[in-house]
Design brief:
20% strand, binds 3,4-dihydroxyphenylalanine, single chain, 41% helix, 10 strands
Length: 341
């Protein structure tokens, strides 16, 4: 039986030496040391031995079992180590490789200019208010002194959604809403998208952006309007900028003006940017029409006010010398990246 033991030992160790993965090791353990394994079978067979032989053989078989168990665990450790080393070698990191640049988003040029504008007006005490883009006929037209069938409706080509519902053609729609919500003194701007059924070209888009301004208080005059707009224009275009008023017509202001700023590119002598005029038109404005005040629940005998509407797209294209308004809406990253800041 001793020889049998020795033979089993040699066979097991020889076999273990060539095993190369975890599964083979487990098979090996089951075959030799498991419940039905060869070493276990030897222990079971000891009943047939004499009382003197039994303890001697028992010790030998236990020794064999321990020897195989520790050989197995050594082999297991060695295999794991080899595997880890192989993995480390395969996943070697070159820390001198340049990293990948992660692109972060930036502000759209319209937002860059709008943020500046909001800063300027907030510093003069204006609040920023919001209004709906889907607007009623009342706020977009009637409350602005443009009754149904009034010829002034032809000034703006309107997208109607339903009988009394439309896409606002002007942020002026915020005027009556504000008058209903606030009592004078009122000092607000309302920036936002506006819509008109215009053909798309280098200077027109069916969606564009305006900033409405509205100031109502006792004793407000045209001088206040000019002061506020001068301050605004000089902050945007530089201290030397001059502002000029040209008489104009809007149904909701009386008198109405169109406002030009001296061209910041040539200083007023005429160049490509101002098309030789020396002036660039940037907004419409005027003194709020008494009827508009009345419809907004404000007594025109007691209060006066001024309003203005700035075209944000125009302001942005002239500031950055962008030749085509469509660039603002195409979202071409190569274009937009130039305005990141
Ligand atoms: N809403 C006018 C437009 O879209 C712009 C405008 C002109 C707004 C005069 C005003 C204003 O508040 O007083 O053409």
């Amino acid at each position: 039986m001793k020889e049998q033991l020795e033979a089993l030992r040699n066979e097991a160790l020889a076999e273990l030496a060539v095993l190369s993965d975890a599964k083979q090791l487990e098979d090996f353990r089951v075959r030799y040391l498991g419940k039905k394994g060869s070493v276990t079978a030897l222990l079971r067979g000891m009943g047939a031995l004499s009382a003197e032989e039994r303890p001697v053989m028992g010790q030998l078989v236990n020794q064999l079992r321990q020897e195989l168990e520790s050989a197995l665990s050594e082999k297991n450790t060695a295999l794991q180590q080899a595997q880890q080393e192989a993995q480390l070698a395969a996943e070697k990191l070159d820390v001198t490789m340049p990293g990948k640049k992660i692109k972060s988003g930036g502000l759209h040029p319209l937002n860059v200019v709008l943020d500046d504008l909001i800063d300027i007006f907030q510093s003069m005490g204006f609040d920023v208010v919001d209004g709906p883009e889907v607007e009623t006929d009342y706020y977009n037209f009637q409350a602005l002194n443009v009754p149904e069938d009034h010829p002034a409706r032809d000034m703006q080509d309107t997208f109607y959604l339903a009988d009394n519902l439309l896409l606002r053609t002007q942020t002026s729609a915020a005027q009556a809403r504000t008058m209903e919500e606030r009592k004078p003194p009122i000092r607000i701007i309302c920036p936002g998208r506006v819509y008109r059924a215009d053909e798309v070209d280098a200077t027109h888009s069916p969606v564009f952006h305006q900033i409405e301004g509205l100031v109502i208080d006792k004793g407000i005059t045209m001088c206040d309007l000019k002061g506020v707009l001068e301050q605004f224009a000089q902050e945007i275009y530089g201290k030397e900028t001059k502002v000029r008023f040209r008489p104009s017509f809007f149904p909701f202001t009386e008198p109405s003006v169109e406002v030009d700023v001296s061209c910041s590119e040539c200083g007023g002598t005429g160049c490509r940017v101002c098309k030789g005029a020396g002036w660039i038109e940037i907004l419409g404005a005027g003194m709020v029409h008494p009827s508009v005040l009345r419809m907004g629940g404000i007594d025109p005998e007691e209060y006066t006010g001024f309003a203005f509407g700035i075209g944000l797209d125009r302001l942005t294209t002239t500031r950055y010398k962008i030749s085509d308004i469509r660039l603002l809406f195409e979202n071409d990253q190569r274009f937009l990246e130039q305005f990141d800041r």
